[in-house]
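JOB MANIFEST
job_type = single_chain_structure
chain_count = 1
residues = 804
[input]
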Amino acid sequence: MAAHRSGPLKQQNKAHKGGRHRGRGSAQRDGKGRLALKTLSKKVRKDLSKVDQRHRASQLRKQKKEAVLAEKRQLGSKDGPPHQILVVPLHNRISLPEVFRLLQDRDTGTVHLNEWGSTHSFMLLCPRLKHRWFFTSARPGDLHTVLDMAKVADTILFLLDPLEGWDSTGDYCLSCLFAQGLPTYTLAVQGVSGFPLKKQTDVRKKLSKAVEKRFPDDKLLLLDTQQEAGMLLRQLANQKQRHLAFRDRHAYLFAHAADFVPSEENNLVGTLKISGYVRGQALNVNSLLHIIGHGDFQMKQIDAPMDPFPLNPRVIKSPKDPGMAMEICATDAVADMEEDLKVLMKADPDRQESLQTEVIPDPMEGEHTWPTEEELSEANDLLKESSKVVKKVPKGTSSYQAEWILDEDGESGGEGEEYDDIEHEDFMEEESQDEGSEKEEEEECETVTIGESVRDDLYDEKVDEEAEGKMLEKYKQERLEEMFPDEVDTPRDVAARIRFQKYRGLKSFRTSPWDPKENLPQDYARIFQFQNFINTRRRIFKEIEEKEVEGAEVGWYVTLHVSEVPVSVVEHFKRGAPLIAFSLLPHEQKMSVLNMVVSRHPGNTEPVKAKEQLIFHCGFRRFQASPLFSQHTAADKHKFQRFLTADLALVVTVYAPITFPPASVMLFKQNSNGMHSLIATGHLLSVDPDRMVIKRVVLSGHPFKIFTKMAVVRYMFFNREDVLWFKPVELRTKWGRRGHIKEPLGTHGHMKCSFDGKLKSQDTVLMNLYKRVFPKWTYDPYVPEPVPWVKSEISSTVPEMDME
């Protein structure tokens, strides 16, 4: 009987791969009980059932809700600081005294008035609502006052006009406040009751539509009667608070009172006593204190006097005169405060932060010595003195043969000089005749009477011709930079290898290596640098969140003794300016290199060149500096920008005190009339001196003779030595060809170049050269006070606003 043979359609199973894999048991035996990290984390997640996950999520929601309610209840309560309200009228037709009269209702609560120069404020205590408010005001025209008080205000109350909402000054103020960061705000309209009842609804609808540009989903509240003022107070008390990141991690204080005690040695410097409520975080006496607009200082001690504005004061009411009872209460509080004054904390010299802002560089430190600017200038002077004498020699004479030719008496150059002088005199005579004829024409024109001539003369008196000429030149430079980015003309009087000796060629701007510690300037020896900035920032913020800082708690009324303060600070306060102090985190007084991402503000179109003096508002600081502009990319090298462009976000690099992000940034420019115009807004990126800003220079040449893949290029260089010097640098063309220099031709800068394809006759040959640039050390912590804004002047600096 024949054996059965399987056919071609029989199922073929895969053979068992024995020994190629291990089972779970063998893997556990080899691992000896160790498990991978991913297995552990996945196992923990699987342990929570769906019911437990829902329960955990509900607990987290409940904790967040309780935290929000606790914050809302603490603000303005008897244990927390008063609810600080900044009132900002956004139109010149708004009556601020009338608004304050409505809010100062004796039936609502107790009112304590305060007047500091031109700044009016009052404290409103309402036991019925268990809340206390502190109202301050600032006019939009006073830029520094508005921005400084908005830094510490819990709520901003914007007052709108019923017809226009805000004027040009108010719109500019809103632009600055939005750029700095808005806390909680409320919109109120004054004057709607002055319209007929039938038109009031239409007025409110038109105003809501006009306000949608800035405040899309906000409700407008009326403020014309006592009843509407009471509704507004309830709205302010129950609002959810918005947080500003740059102030939530600092302790800050708005001064309610200030006293100056001059030192025995010098009357111009002494101890400043600042009294106010602690806000934000706990205030430690060993930390430094930054007074906005005046600098950084150390504290001696912190006192804890009685709260002068308690929510439930102990008052013996008089049936005849309740007003007198309130006055007696306030007087007794002040007397008790002086009697019960106790020292809360005193500074410890061993733990106190130092005021040192810069590193004192050691001139002998380093592997080699770099010549100073004085030594370089002396060397240049010696070279000029020992420079070669220019002689007239026959053509073809070498430099060695020229040394043996004696000078003549110099008669050869006399006739040429006389001829030049004669030509110059003729030119001057012709020019003077032209000017005389122009003056005669101008005099003839002045004799003709024109109706608008007086107005034109008045307009011309206000025009600064020198400033107009400088601005025209900047506009031309900006336009040339847009058309021909980074292109420069090769100088003919200086050799290119000397003019561009600090530049280098790169095979690839993105991937070619560049050492960030190479050829650093001397200013880098004065700054501080973190070994790991991100880890340091994370550690400091973690300490703040875990409440490891000891000191005066939030809501306490304290008196700070600040040492070595100039008398100008208290004089500034007495003139009506607000006095605001922020505590500094560790290292925030030290100088380093700050990088900020900014975008051009659409309301300013004037060209802004790199290294111009600008005014910075960074977090709670303001200062002057000359910044660098560079591209905002993720690479390790960033291309330098000569102008602040309008369509791209750029990175601004300056020397400034260390500030931990997040923090808002605003850039202002001081005009010739003293006003500050907003030119850019953004945020703080990092504190990194190793961020490399690379300046590019593009040299251009033109093809003279074109062959298959070869070409003769001219006008890029003008001597043979420069061609040999830059021979290793790669060439490129505007039409995408790449090549390199083969050899120089002749002595006038012509060179033979090879490319990866045939050139077009209209193409341009380019050479990219690069060098690293650094900012200038022009940091100045003192910013001049801006001139108050005027409507006509704002229309010239902010073109986008409609002035009709």
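[summary]
Residues 412-447 form the longest helix (36 residues).
The mean pLDDT is 80.
exit_status = 0
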